[in-house]
Amino acid sequence: MQEKQASTQIRLEVVRAFNARFQLTPQEMNALTGGRFGTTRAQSITDATLEHNEGGAPVPLNDLFFDALQRAKTIHTDCNVLLRTKHQILG
After folding, report:
1. Using CA atoms, how far apart are residues 68 and 82, in angstroms rounded to an integer?
2. 16 within domain boundaries
């Protein structure tokens, strides 16, 4: 029983690590969508905007936006690496 519990715990940790590396956080999603992703906007978002999201609401172009955009690019690159290896299902 303890071995099964330990195995399950290890699998859970692997899944959490995978998700942390290959998924945007809700805050990053909000930064990219102007706060339209399930939670409220971060307090530091300003009204300085240059783009609009699908609903026509302004998307702030600030440090949060560009940090999230860079993270999305990193995830995209990492997924491409998985696709080029024998891990196509994960990519």
Report:
1. 21
2. no
Q: Which tokens go with 49?
A: 């905007």
pLDDT digit string (tens) for 27-75? Answer: 999 999 887 766 444 443 444 444 555 556 667 789 999 999 999 999 9
What is the C-alpha to C-alpha distance for residues 26 and 37, in angstroms, rounded to an integer?
Answer: 7
- Residue-wise pLDDT tens digits, 4-33: 899 999 999 999 999 999 999 999 999 998
Classified as helix, coil or strand, 44 is coil
Domain extent for 89: 23-91
Report whether 67 contacts 78 (CB < 8 A): no
